[in-house]
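Support reply, case 0932

Customer input (verbatim):
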Amino acid sequence: MLVNTNQPSGMDHHSAEFDYRALTPDLILDAIESIGIYPESGLLALNSYENRVYHFRCDHGKKYVVKFYRPERWSTEQIIEEHTFSYEIAEAEVPLALPLTINQQTLHEYKGYRFALFPSMGGRNFEVDNLEQLEMVGHFIGRLHQCGKSKHFNYRPAYTPQSLGDDSIDWLKQSGHIPSSLETAFFTITEQVLTASKQIWQKQSPTQFRLHGDLHPGNILWTPDGPGFVDLDDARTGPAIQDLWMMLTGDRPQKVMQLEILLEAYEEFCDFDTKELTLIEPLRALRMLYYNAWISRRWDDPAFPMHFPWFNSEKYWEEQILAFKEQLAALDEAPLSLIPY
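Our regenerated output:
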């Protein structure tokens, strides 16, 4: 596979507006046609806040998904690294949506926007409580991780308490989004949560390698042939458990049963260090922090106030304070284990 071998890495993305106002339907169509694909149907916007993603049918009847990457989020090198990783995963027989190679590259540029084209992957929702489906998913995550261990990312970042936690709190402190009457309570509890998460993380010093990075059930489609993985946009270096813990739902006994099925299938292809189970609650805490900072960082994009109108309400931040108090308690509990306590 060749990936964007002739595009300059220092492309200036500032010409494309941060909130996508310059990304009009006409520009989208022109961009797609610039790589020799001619849409026949209209553009159906898919559920994506970070990027702009559209489904369409071309004049030959084939169905595609086009993704326009958010300007200034990832560098060109980081996106190419994502694409390269996706092809390595596919070679390891993991079913996923691959960026198509057109004109010897997978990443394209049109009027300041970088974009990629994918074949449409049909399917229904992955049923995380379906144990047969969960077992199949475990097999493929094991294959994905075995592939992820074979090389290293050179450009894409790592999951760390600093990048997900400290940076998020620092951003929120200067964002102006938290009501002044709740600032002290919010930052007191979030800093306690972060401190507890760091202590657990540092004690484990987990092995890290290339991951999907955002492997929640919504990023798995169920096709007639089994699972299909999508959206490597958040691929990073991290501990194996990052790609597993979001599959676990329900009460503790249910999670233990799901974990047993998932890991038994996973370990047919890749070893798993059970010490990483202690990282589940720290990773959940870091995800909570990052989520709040993510919405705050994107608030200038008109799509965010429209889809997250509650974010600016006092009630929301009161609920967050309560949620972080509950998470602090969860960090103090015995971690999930395959051995009953």
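We compared this against your earlier run and they match. Two observations from our side: The domain at 25-120 is CATH 3.30.200.70 (Phosphorylase Kinase; domain 1). The chain is about 40% helix and 10% strand. Please reopen the case if you see a mismatch on your end.
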